């Protein structure tokens, strides 16, 4: 690991000084590599993307100290910065104080895992490294966002942004395919090249005895952590396929659907179904205007073509690759009867305990990093309480408002769907606000929004 550190550190420092925008795009790609560290010290791994957020945050703070001012072109950007700053400072201070105030309260500590705590019971709360690490990494993510939204991006950079997202997806495709082929053909799985953290050993989980295929997890710790990314990609290319056609958009849409199926993640299945509905709702071929019903013939054709292609594609995959019986078993186990599984029961126990913590602490929570439930809302309520939860969602709301106003009626509206995709996945079953995909999509959407605003000539809206 020292080899990677020796190679990447000089490169990142050079780019930070001379081509920092390139470093931003590199960061976006590395946020796909959840399992890749730049250096390991004992049993601790510093992921590449976390190192980059620290580096960019330091440069941003130095810039502020030297200039003593920030020039903001959009009023809502000020709200994003203010709400993000207030939440990050609150979460840091409260995560130090809360474990002392509520010391001994029964919590589900992050290092033990949800299943362990659900089976063996909660542990007494005490101040831990997580009470510092999670708020600090959240601060670095937010500072990196501030750095990005205070940059100027030209309309030509939308190509670089699109390429960055496409590279990230191609990496997911290659590593997922490698995981399946390595099991069947015994070839070397290239995922092991990227899997350099010591936090968790690399291993496969399988779909079931009826279909012993590895659940694809790509460069993530587990299949459910891949769910927000592939759901976002599906939404992105679904919108592009509806509005622009093109074979490449349909191809990436189909591949994203395959990965969702092969992840056998209930989180992926539910969030994909919800986001499919959301994208369709925003792209209905029928509109009402001045008492008239307008029908877009092009969209009707694309909808019809898309439905036929998706149906035929699924039919081929189910009959000739997965098998109809196996597919029905997957749907039964991971979607219809998921509530009967031990995993679902343990996660329900974790969420119910989080709500109990919220009530027992009079709505204040036990501090960020103190408790680990299964989904985002109980995560926030049990740790930063009602006040911190409102602060966080106000911050997210400002980002969504900024992106929607910027991207609506533009050629880049497909980027808007990335953020709702990851939020829906996290509200279902991915609690961590330091989730790299959350910030990856926030950064991508923010850059696309800045470009779109400049294209429209909007300076203060």
Describe the overall structure.
This protein has helices at residues 2-18, 20-30, 48-67, 75-101, 114-120, 130-149, 157-185, 191-194, 223-244, 247-263, 266-282, 297-322, 324-336, 342-360, 376-407, 418-429, 436-456; strands spanning 37-41, 44-47, 106-107, 123-124, 206-208, 211-214, 286-289, 292-295. Helix 3 crosses helix 6 (130-149), helix 4 (75-101) runs antiparallel to helix 6 and helix 9 packs antiparallel against helix 16. 68% of the residues lie in helices and 6% in strands. The protein has 461 residues and is mainly alpha-helical. The model has no long low-confidence stretch (mean pLDDT 85). Strand 5 and strand 6 form a beta hairpin.
Helix content: 55-70%
Output mean pLDDT.
Answer: 85
- β-sheet strand percentage: 5-15%
Strand order of the largest sheet: 1-2
* Helix/strand order: HHEEHHEHEHHHEEHHHEEHHHHHH
The poorly predicted ranges are none
Structural class comes to mainly alpha
How many helices in DSSP terms? 17
Care to count the β-strands? 8
Secondary structure topology:
Layout: H1 2-18, H2 20-30, E1 37-41, E2 44-47, H3 48-67, H4 75-101, E3 106-107, H5 114-120, E4 123-124, H6 130-149, H7 157-185, H8 191-194, E5 206-208, E6 211-214, H9 223-244, H10 247-263, H11 266-282, E7 286-289, E8 292-295, H12 297-322, H13 324-336, H14 342-360, H15 376-407, H16 418-429, H17 436-456
Antiparallel strand pairs: 1-2, 3-4, 5-6, 7-8
């Amino acid at each position: 690991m020292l080899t990677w550190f020796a190679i990447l550190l000089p490169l990142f420092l050079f780019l930070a000084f001379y081509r920092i925008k390139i470093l931003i795009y590199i960061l976006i790609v590395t946020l796909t590599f959840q399992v890749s560290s730049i250096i390991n010290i004992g049993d601790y791994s510093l992921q590449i993307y976390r190192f980059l957020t620290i580096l960019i945050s330091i440069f941003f703070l130095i810039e502020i100290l030297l200039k003593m001012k920030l020039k903001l072109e959009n009023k809502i950007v000020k709200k994003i910065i203010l709400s993000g700053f207030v939440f990050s400072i609150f979460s840091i201070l409260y995560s130090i104080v809360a474990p002392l105030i509520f010391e001994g309260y029964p919590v589900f500590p992050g290092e033990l895992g949800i299943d362990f705590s659900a089976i063996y019971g909660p542990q007494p709360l005490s101040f831990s490294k997580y009470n510092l690490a999670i708020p600090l990494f959240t601060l670095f993510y937010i500072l990196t966002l501030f750095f990005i939204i205070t940059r100027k991006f030209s309309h030509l950079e939308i190509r670089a942004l699109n390429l960055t997202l496409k590279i990230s997806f191609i990496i997911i495709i290659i590593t997922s395919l490698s995981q399946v082929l390595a099991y069947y053909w015994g070839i070397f799985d290239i995922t092991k090249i990227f899997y350099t953290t010591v936090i968790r050993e690399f291993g496969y989980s399988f779909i079931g005895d009826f279909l012993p295929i590895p659940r694809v997890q790509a460069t993530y710790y587990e299949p459910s952590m891949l769910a927000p990314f592939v759901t976002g990609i599906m939404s992105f290319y679904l919108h592009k396929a509806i509005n622009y056609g093109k074979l490449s958009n349909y191809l990436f849409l189909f591949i994203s659907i395959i990965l969702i199926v092969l992840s056998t993640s209930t989180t992926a299945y539910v969030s994909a179904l919800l986001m499919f509905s959301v994208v369709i709702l925003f792209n209905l071929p029928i509109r009402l205007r001045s008492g008239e019903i307008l029908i877009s013939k092009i969209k009707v054709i694309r909808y019809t073509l898309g439905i036929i292609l998706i149906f035929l594609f699924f039919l081929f995959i189910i009959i000739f690759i997965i098998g109809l019986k196996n597919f029905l078993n997957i749907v039964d186990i991971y979607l219809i009867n998921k509530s009967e599984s031990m995993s679902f029961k343990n996660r329900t126990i974790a969420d119910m305990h989080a709500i109990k913590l919220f009530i027992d602490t009079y709505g204040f929570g036990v501090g960020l990093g103190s408790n680990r439930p299964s989904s985002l809302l109980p995560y926030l309520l049990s740790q930063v309480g009602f006040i911190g939860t409102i602060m966080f969602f106000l911050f997210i709301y400002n980002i969504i408002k900024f992106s929607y106003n910027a991207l609506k009626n533009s050629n880049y509206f497909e980027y808007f769907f990335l953020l709702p995709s990851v939020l829906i996945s996290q509200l279902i079953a991915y609690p961590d606000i330091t989730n790299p995909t959350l910030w990856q999509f926030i950064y991508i959407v923010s850059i696309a929004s800045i470009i779109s605003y400049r294209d429209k000539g909007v300076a203060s809206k």
